[in-house]
Every structure is written in C-alpha cells, then in structure tokens.
C-alpha cells in the first residue's frame, strides 16, 4: 500500500510541466512589450500612472490591457497553486518516506554512472582523434608497453575540452541584437525566439567591450538554454529571421570552440573565393565543407 502511495506521488511530480511555466513567462513578456510599445516607453520602470493616463491610453485600450493582465494573473495563480502542491509533495516525500528518498538516490546514482560512462566513451574517442600522432589507438596504449604513453597534461587537456564542448552545446551566440542601457535581455530574446515558434528558458549576457560613444555597433549576446536539443531547434529555424522586418539584422550561430571558429573562417574564405572565381554558380557551406551547384 505504501509503495502504491509513493508511486502515485512520484507520478504526480512527473506530471508537472515546465512548458506551462515558460508559456506564462512568455505571455507576460509579450504583454509588457505591447504596453511599452503603445505608450512609447523604453523601461518597465517608466510604466507609471501618468503614462496610463495619457491620451495614448484610451478607455478601450486600457480595458483590453486590464483583461489581459487579469488572465495573466489567473494563470500565475494557477501555476503557484501547482507549485505549492509540488512543494508539499516534496516535503511529504522527504519527511515521511526514507524509502522513496533511497530510491531517488539510486536513480540519481545510476544516471550519474551512465553520464560518467558516456563521458568516458567521449574522452576515449577524442583521445584517439586528438593524439593520433602520438599513438596508433587508445587500445594500443593499454596493451603495448612500447607504445608512446599519453602524458598527464595531454589527458587533462582532452578531458577539459570534452567538458567544455558539452557545456558549449547548450549555448548560442546572437549578433546584431540592438543594445540599450538597462535593457532586459531575457525579454528581448524571448521575443526573438517566439517569432521562431520557440519558448525556451534563457540565460543571457552580452560580452566584449562597450562600443565607443556614437558607435551604433552592438555587442554580441551569449545565450544559455536548458539543453542542446533546444539549441538545435532554434538553429534549424534561425534563417527565418532574415525574412522578418524586425529581426532581419539578427544572426544566430552556435557557440564554437577556437578550433571550430578557425575551421569555419577558412570555409567562409573558401566560399568567398569561389564566389569571385565562379559567380555563375551558387556556393554554400554544408557538412563541414564548401559545396557548389549551378544556379537554377
């Protein structure tokens, strides 16, 4: 009977869908952008009573905003009730069921073991590719005493590169996104991604030096998403931004390693060279190489 209750509680926890939370956050962000645009203000702090009492905010407009705000608050209230239920379930499980905690710990250990095995496989594969000038294969190192050994420094560098590549797979770089003082990057990026039909949770920060006064160039943005799958979803649709009036200057790219950036730069140079030498053909980068085809 106890196991049945525990299974029900665990199943209820799994039913909690973070997509609902993301949807509420996105709806709120769009509501704020809409109001700020109508009242011609830049910052949320500028949404004062005086602005809502201006000629731009007619009674029908205010009524529409109020209706939208009420719906958002209702959804937030529902979300808070669900979160409260989840918290109570967690408390119940933590305080009243040591067996459930042990099961969860075992699941976590098994997952960690699988991740370590996956990382080990990735490290072994990368070692074979990276130090092939030093050894014939990873197996040769283990079996042949006479084969060159991997140094500690080399092995540490390989492991570090593998971990960094895994972290980098959850990142995006966004170029050409307008920059303002006191901007809310998460709201701005949510608007960009929603135009691609995606609503991921994002962490974003600009990097690089601030542009000189009077320089309109904006700094790129590093965006971290919840998974590499979310990154691939956005990258597969990013080209559509060029077809929009609002985001046509925005460019989205993967977060490449220094070696990948060097390889990409060489591919771009090769593509430009072909475009000059063979203007009658279309040239593009695909699968890590420059391809050409006749124009139709």
Could you please describe the fold and organization of this structure?
This protein has 296 residues and is of the alpha+beta class. The chain contains ten helices and six strands. The strands form two sheets. The chain has a four-stranded antiparallel beta sheet with strand order 2-3-1-4. A hairpin with a 2-residue loop joins β5 (281-286) and β6. The chain is flat.
List the helices and strands and how they pair.
Layout: H1 2-15, H2 18-39, H3 49-52, H4 59-96, H5 98-130, H6 138-143, H7 152-168, E1 171-175, H8 185-194, E2 203-206, E3 221-224, H9 228-237, E4 251-254, H10 258-277, E5 281-286, E6 289-294
Antiparallel strand pairs: 1-3, 1-4, 2-3, 5-6
Helix pairs in contact: 1-4, 2-4, 2-8, 5-7
Q: What separation lies between the terminal Cα atoms? A: 70 Å
Anisotropy-based shape? flat
Looking at how many chains there are and whether they match, the oligomeric state comes to single chain
The share of residues in helices is 55-70%
Quick synopsis:
This protein is an alpha+beta fold and 296 residues long. It contains 10 helices and 6 strands.
